[in-house]
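Give me the 3D structure for Actin-related protein 8.
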Amino acid sequence: MTQAEKEQDSGKEKEKERDKEKEQQRGVKRPIAPPAIPDPLQEQIQSNFIVVINPGSRTLRIGRATDTLPVTLPHVIARRHKQTGQPRHEDAWLLRDGLNKAESNEQRQNGLKMVDQAIWSKKMSNGVRRTPVSAEQARAYNCQIRPAVLDSSSRVKWTNTAHQPPHLVGEEALYVNPSDCYNIHWPIVRGQLNVHASPGGSLTAVMADLETIWSHVIQKQLEIPLKDLKYYRCILLVPDIYNRQHIKEVVNMLLLNMGFSAIIVHQESVCATFGSGLSSACVVDVGDQKTSLCCVEDGVSHRNSRLCLAYGGSDVTRTFFWLLQRAGFPYRDCQLSSRLDCQLLQHLKETFCHLNQDISGLQDHEFQTRFPEAPALLYQVRLGDEKLQAPMGLFYPTTFGIVGQKMTSLQYRSQGDSEDPHDEHYLLATQSKQDQSSKSAADRKGISRPGGGLDGEMSGQGGIGELADLTRGCGSGGGGGAIKVEMEFGPAQGECLMGAGEVEEPLSAHLSRKTAIMSQFESKALGLDKAILHSIDCCGSDETKRKMYSSILVVGGGLMFHGAQEFLLHRIINKMPPSFRRLVDNVEVITRPKDMDPQLISWKGGAVLACLDTTQEMWIHQREWQRFGVRMLRERAAFVW
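Predicted structure for Actin-related protein 8 (641 residues):
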């Protein structure tokens, strides 16, 4: 065979092999890949396409993660009546339930006595005790005061509603004329959605208000068209003690209604540590309507230490107004039911009140009133201890005169969600059964019993075993990875409230005793200093407690009084357990980290979060939420959902 024939034959063989390979490839059944959600981790996320939202009870802060400062506006909406003659409804600002009870005034007077005693007992920096000033001394002067007219026109106008807009937001809503056909709604109250029985109080209506306010600000202030939100992501800051159903509704609204492409949900306290540049701190967030406390260590919020007190800056404002009235406040038409008067009182509190005990005696002040359709007036007012007594209400909350209301909240166990069947209840129940079966196997090896009675006995006790696990106070104990066996009522504060240890008494008696203790605890209004000590005391180890005492971070706008830092530090040192005074080298209260506005620190922390590489796995994408729903929060949230 010649060389040419050999080459021809080898060429034919190669061609046959290629044909055979093609036939095999055609015949192979390839597995059908499931429709995978694209992996988001490969994307390069730009911070200017991330919107950070920090919704407060009185103020909304919202902006791009790259913005130096967020857009800040009153978190309020005015909605036009759909029918003529419809009754007008306006959500209260400074007024609240529990103020008009028979015991309210007596409680207020008792609180004021405790405040006066505390003021007198603490010496001034020169070593001399303060001379108390009675309200009567100021009253005699203030009752004679008449206002001076500065200008015949105040140059302040009601919001123009001639074109009948269906809704108005922020400052425009605040200046809607009460005679116009608009309802005024504040969608968040004391850190939770403002669901109530009056008009506009359904969950659907509150969610519609939130969507309208946030969409308006994003379009008008951030200048982002709503149709472009599919290119943007969102970081939502939520309270430390949150309502799971409410968070689920808000995430649903942001992803599915407004159309953000992805979201991260994180707690305000943890974001506050990011914003202030601290790794660990006891975060004290004094807001307008609530005060929340939580110990944060290395970016994790200690569930046991969470505490929410149902009072804040607006309660101080209302108490200041009561004290002003006792001292003969010269602006005699002031009403707590008026929006503009509430704004004025808020301004007077921020201007005059302080926590500096070196300032004593009677002092003269002046203030202006500028209201629509009225002249601009100048008032003189003489004040004494009222300026110090009002903010001290945060340490003696009985001064607020709130009766019959729940004043302290703890993190309650999840009630379960039909969309999330494998929640902590399921895990606790299965864990309990595993424990029982292993115990049963051990018993079989150790003791032989007739007739298989052990199995029946164990199966009959299953329900009690699970219940006992749910109701056992565990302090800092835990089991099964991240699953903590906590008190049914809240964040395992059993060590602090009931004492640790196994339950010896019958289950029903234990439950009723625990219910009584918890309801008694929640009806009490803890002072701010006592609440801080309680929160730190609920931490698991002495080392963690030591860290917290050396870094108490105060954020929010409710404690922005002159002298607040020194005042709080003095009270903490005096009341902390003697054992820790020796262990803690330096107790520190931080009120202005990096010289930043304490009201913006949590929002700033949300902006920092957007830039961290470690947050990339926390994003919940729109398609994931559509497919898996609330289960994504359990999987992706940086805190135990």
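Residues 27-36, 448-492, 499-503 have pLDDT under 50 and may be disordered. Let me know if you want a second pass.
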